[in-house]
Here is the input.
Amino acid sequence: MVIEVKHQDFQGDAEYDVKLSDAAEILYSNGYEFARVVIPSNSHHPIHSNAPLIRQAFLRKDLWPTPDVVERINQLAAQGASTVRDYLLPLQISANLIPIFLACGALSMDLVQHHINGDSPVQAAFGSLDHLQLLDRFIQ
Here is the structure.
């Protein structure tokens, strides 16, 4: 897959769109998929703060939760935990670990709609990483 990434405020003009269309046809004819991704220009958009946190979290596999902690997360979810704050005290963890729990699939949240903070809605991910498939949400 070939991905063209553009900033929302600098997507190019009509002439550039024609070039992209031509390039996409050539790529498709050679067996490549082509996607155009447009990143929001608002610097306060959640993706701008969440993506670096998740990226860093992948580098800290030494901090990923143990199976016992994951089981406790699942129990808390079954008991109605629905925000980051609902998990912090019962698990006796720092909020700094939440990106790690999101990166490993222990917790899940909409990283495009919400900043990672105490009020963020989260749920047990049961090992799923679907919430990390962000690229598709920005393809145009």
Notes: DSSP finds five helices and four strands in the chain. Strands lie at 2-7, 34-39, 107-108, 123-124. The mean pLDDT is 93.
